[in-house]
Model the fold of this input.
Amino acid sequence: MLIIPVKDGENIDRALKRFKRKFDRTKTMKNLRNRKHFTKPSVEKRAQNIKAAYVQRLRTQEEQG
Done:
């Protein structure tokens, strides 16, 4: 549960902005989306390997030219 203390005389927009930032940092929505459907561990590992290879390819291209 997120608790955002609002000080006396504080602008509500500022408090809302702090809430949104804190909400994003807890990765709540990301966890909910991941739990919507089950992904096999082998599929997750394969996707992770593909992403790592892609990032590595980008870095080598950046070094070369």
